[in-house]
Amino acid sequence: EILVATDVAARGIDISGVSHVINYRVPENAEDYVHRIGRTGRAEAEGDAFTILTADELDYAKAVEFFIEQKIPRRKLENFPYIYTALLDESPIKPVRRKKTGGGKKRK
Q1: Considering the domain boundaries, does residue 104 fall inside one?
Q2: Separation CA 55–CA 84 (nearest Å)
Q3: Which residues form the domain of 43?
């Protein structure tokens, strides 16, 4: 069985027995990543989470790594013609500026 859900649905449902989570986009919010991959660890079960990463999502991936305080291992696909190699960077985690969500008053 396969479940495809948005971040909103992923937070609102409880499904047991999920062994694999495949993220075809990196969540814009690091907490959403944790909620997604947490589907594999219910009731002390184990599972795998995979994330397909593109160049435009690199900042989101770095924000996730900063949030979970660890690097997400990268796997290079054999014979794939990489154009943007920064995706494969294994350097230590660096803080990433997060998007402002508003709410503050503007100065005049």
Answers
A1: no
A2: 7
A3: 7-88
